[in-house]
C-alpha cells in the first residue's frame, strides 16, 4: 500500500462520531444537525427538470472536457460574475465532478517531486481536510498558516520562512473561508500573487462558497477577478467553483476549474487518464444552473434570514459570535473546550455542531481551532432558529 496513506488522519466527522459514542441525546428535542456543510435547501425545479429531460445522454460516454455548451455557460458566468475577459473554453476551463475531487486531484498533477525531495504545499489552518490529504498523497509536506482572530482570519504568508517558500509548489487558499467565512481583499490577493511570481508556486483558489454572501452589492472577489483588476494575467492561478452550495445540488457533483490555460490543459490530460468525465445528464442540468441567477439570489435570501436572526441570538451566550463575510458557517469562539461544548449541545439539546479543533492541526505551538465550534446554518429556517433559541435558553 502507498505509505503516504498512513499519514492521513480520521476525517472530522468520524472523529465526531467517536466523540459522541455512548452518549444518548436528549429525546425531548428533535435532532438538528448543524455540523456538516451540506446544503439542505430545495433543489430548483429547473435543474431537476433538466436532469429528467436529458437521461437519454446516459447511453453515451462523456468526454473529459465536457460538451462545448457547458464550457460556454461557465465562461459566460465567469464574465458576468467577475467582470473578466472571456477565457479559452478549450484550454482554460474544465468541468469537474465537484470541487472536492478536483482539489485533491490537482495536487497530484501539480506537485513535482523530481525538482525537490521535500516539496511543500501551504494551507490555511483551520482548513478543508482535502488540502492536507492531497498534499500527503502527492508526496508533499503540508505547511500550515494559522488563521486566528488576531490576524483577522487572513493567511499571512509573511510569517512563512524563506526556506519554506523556496520549496513551496502549491498554495491552497479558500475565500470565502471554511470555517471563518473570511473573504480575501484585493491587497491580500496582491501579496499572494507577488509571492507566486517570486517563488513560482501555483495558487489553487477554492471558491465553492463564493455565491453565499449577505450584501448583494458587494459579492466576494475571486482569484481571477483580483488578477484582472490588478492588471495581471492568470499565470499560476487556478480557481475551483461548484454548483453544490450555489444551487443546492451537492449530490449532482458538478463544478469546474478555470485559469492558467497551460496548467488547466495539463490537468485535463491527467483527468483523461484518471477517468473523471461528468455524467451527460449532469452536464445538461449544469448548463441550466450556470445560466440562471434567480434561484441563486433566492438561496442567498434564505441564508441571510437565518444569519440575521441567529447571530444576535447566539451573541447573548457567546459574545464573540459575529456575522461572517460570506459562506454558511458561524465560527464561534466559545472560549471553552470545544469538544465539551459539542458534547453538551448534543447530549442536552440534541444539536450537533463540529468542534473547531477537529478542523485544524497543531501548528506553531497552538491548535487555532481549539475553543471554537463551527455551526453550518444549512437546516431549514425554522429548525435553525429553533435550535438557536434552544441554545440560548439552556446556556442562560
What is the chain-wise order of helices and strands? Answer: HEHHEHEHEHEHEHEHEHHHEHEEEH
Number of domains: 2
Overall spatial form: globular
Indicate the structural class.
alpha/beta
CATH topology of the largest domain: Aspartate Aminotransferase, domain 2
Strand order within the widest sheet? 2-8-7-6-5-3-4
Question: How would you sum up the major sheet?
Answer: 7 strands, mixed
Beta-strand content estimate: 5-15%
CATH class of the largest domain: Alpha Beta
The gyration radius over C-alpha positions equals: 21 Å
What is the subunit organization of this protein? single chain
Instruction: Count every beta strand, where a strand is a DSSP E run of 2 or more residues.
Output: 12
Percent of residues in helices: 40-55%
pLDDT < 50 stretches? none
* Name of the CATH architecture of the largest domain: 3-Layer(aba) Sandwich
Number of helices: 14
- Overall pLDDT: 97
Rounded to the nearest angstrom, the distance between the terminal CA atoms is 52 Å
State the CATH superfamily name of the largest domain.
Type I PLP-dependent aspartate aminotransferase-like (Major domain)
Amino acid at each position: 500500500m502507498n505509505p503516504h496513506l498512513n499519514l492521513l488522519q480520521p476525517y472530522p466527522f468520524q472523529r465526531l462520531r467517536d466523540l459522541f459514542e455512548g452518549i444518548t441525546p436528549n429525546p425531548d428535542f428533535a435532532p438538528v444537525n448543524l455540523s456538516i456543510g451540506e446544503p439542505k435547501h430545495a433543489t430548483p425545479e429547473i435543474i431537476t427538470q433538466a436532469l429528467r429531460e436529458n437521461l437519454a445522454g446516459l447511453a453515451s460516454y462523456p468526454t473529459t472536457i465536457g460538451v462545448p455548451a457547458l464550457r460556454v455557460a461557465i465562461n459566460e458566468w465567469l464574465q458576468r460574475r467577475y467582470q473578466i475577459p472571456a477565457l479559452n473554453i478549450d484550454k482554460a476551463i474544465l468541468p469537474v465532478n465537484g470541487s472536492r475531487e478536483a482539489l485533491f486531484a490537482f495536487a497530484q498533477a501539480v506537485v513535482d517531486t523530481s525538482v525537490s525531495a521535500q516539496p511543500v504545499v501551504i494551507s490555511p489552518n483551520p482548513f478543508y481536510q482535502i488540502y492536507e490529504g492531497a498534499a500527503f498523497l502527492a508526496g508533499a509536506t503540508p505547511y500550515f498558516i494559522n488563521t486566528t482572530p488576531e490576524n483577522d482570519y487572513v493567511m499571512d504568508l509573511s510569517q512563512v520562512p524563506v526556506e519554506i517558500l523556496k520549496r513551496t509548489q502549491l498554495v491552497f487558499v479558500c475565500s470565502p473561508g471554511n470555517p471563518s467565512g473570511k473573504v480575501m481583499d484585493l491587497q491580500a490577493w496582491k501579496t499572494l500573487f507577488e509571492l507566486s511570481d517570486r517563488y513560482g508556486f501555483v495558487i489553487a483558489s477554492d471558491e465553492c462558497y463564493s455565491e453565499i454572501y449577505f450584501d448583494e452589492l458587494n459579492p466576494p472577489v475571486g482569484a481571477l477577478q483580483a488578477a484582472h483588476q490588478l492588471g495581471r494575467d492568470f499565470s499560476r492561478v487556478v480557481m475551483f467553483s461548484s454548483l453544490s452550495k450555489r444551487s443546492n445540488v451537492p449530490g449532482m457533483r458538478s463544478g469546474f476549474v478555470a485559469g492558467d490555460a497551460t496548467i488547466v490543459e495539463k490537468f485535463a490530460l491527467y483527468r483523461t487518464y484518471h477517468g473523471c468525465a461528468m455524467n451527460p445528464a449532469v452536464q445538461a442540468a449544469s448548463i441550466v444552473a450556470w445560466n440562471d441567477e434567480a434561484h441563486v439570489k433566492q438561496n442567498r435570501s434564505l441564508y441571510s434570514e437565518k444569519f440575521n436572526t441567529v447571530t444576535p441570538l447566539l451573541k447573548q451566550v457567546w459574545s464573540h459570535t459575529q456575522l461572517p463575510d460570506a459562506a454558511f458557517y458561524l465560527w464561534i469562539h466559545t472560549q471553552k473546550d470545544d469538544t465539551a461544548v459539542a458534547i453538551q449541545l448534543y447530549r442536552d439539546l440534541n444539536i450537533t455542531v463540529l468542534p473547531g479543533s477537529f478542523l485544524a492541526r497543531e501548528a506553531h505551538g497552538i491548535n487555532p481551532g481549539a475553543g471554537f465550534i463551527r455551526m453550518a446554518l444549512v437546516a431549514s429556517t425554522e429548525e435553525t432558529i429553533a435550535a438557536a433559541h434552544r441554545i440560548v435558553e439552556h446556556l442562560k
